Amino acid sequence: MGAKGLLVDYEWCTGCHTCEVACQLEHGYPSDQWGIKVHEVGPWEYAPKKWQYSYLPAPTDQCDLCGARVAKGHVPTCVKHCQAQVLKYGDIEDLARELAQKPKQTLFCCASA
């Protein structure tokens, strides 16, 4: 079995923070700790009338890719609850092939997976 990770298609992330809340509830983290955290990028104008404003969910050091859930055949809770379906869980090799097919994605390899 290969290493696992998360592929994030941040082109479509709406910044709803559902992944953060689902993770906190799943693991019992206090309100100031997360296994995944949504970061705001921008807003700033990088050319006339062109703006950068996006969101990027990123796993923290507390992320274990929901090892207990995955062991039962489920996906990590952040993936399950992502309303925009921008998070994908799987083998690093498979996710890397998807990453190469479009911009505005990033791949996170979680050490504890």
UniProtKB/TrEMBL annotation:
Keyword tags: 4Fe-4S, Iron, Iron-sulfur, Metal-binding
Record lineage: Bacteria, Bacillati, Actinomycetota, Coriobacteriia, Eggerthellales
Keyword Metal-binding: yes
InterPro entries in UniProt: 4Fe4S_Fe-S-bd, ET_IronSulfur_Cluster-Binding
Gene3D superfamilies: 3.30.70.20
Protein's UniProt name: 4Fe-4S dicluster domain-containing protein
Species of provenance: Gordonibacter faecis
4Fe-4S ferredoxin-type domain: residues covered: 4-33
Transmembrane segments: none
Signal peptide: none
